[in-house]
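Attaching the record inline, Q. Sequence:
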Amino acid sequence: YAPAYAPILLPMEGQVALFPRGDNVVIVGTHFLPNDTTRHADHGHSLPWLDPGTQSGMLDQAGLFLRNIDGGQVTSVQSIGDTEGAFLLEVPSGRYLLSTETWSPQQRRAGRLRMGFESYPVPEDVASLSDILMLQPLSNEPEVLESIISQALRRPEIHAGQTFAIAWEVYGLGFRSESLTFELSINQINRSIFRKISQFLRLTSRAQPTLISWREPGPLTPGPVFRYLNLDLPDLDPGNYVIRLVLRTSGRGEVISTRVFRVQDKG
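Structure, as predicted:
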């Protein structure tokens, strides 16, 4: 069921992160052109349905599209001339169908990620966290979300030994003096059933989560609080992991945000 303009239409596992802003929500979505996974990818013989034809010379395109499920309006941001990058789009809170798309007319190939999400206005005095966004590390610590969009990893994936960074926002603070405690852990989530059984029988040791904990004063005025952290985790084996960020404040319940990512072999 691939469209005629892109006979090779592939799933695109980019990052999508939501950042509530009062009655609105900021969406960050990354995109890239997926590798050709068809049986013709490793040889170059002529395939009439893959010839660019009238699309020859057309520029690559990408876009982030949001359709309001209740109202039907479509909001989008698009670019011409590239198939890799990240978009930022702010819309009123609500229920949406999201689609990040990239298309190379010359290669007759496209990638797409589609998902639905709901976003609700953030109560003024209730502590909450945004999603976690994975980034290329920066030498200078950024101060606002908008300054790091171009550094977002195109997919939630790193190579073993690769340094990366994460960014997030905190909301609902600044109405009174308080201290914040953050706790960050990274756990592998793809242990085999045999390893789980052996750990249950105590035949092997259970891997301990990577854990970082720190305290800091809360903000002096209400508004989004941007936070950024470089991570150097050389001992992560290939596999799937989950980043778990916990925020604790005195007199409030804890708040949790997570991000699943993958570690690939260096080669």
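Residues 193-200 form the longest helix (8 residues). The chain has a mean pLDDT of 87.

More tomorrow.
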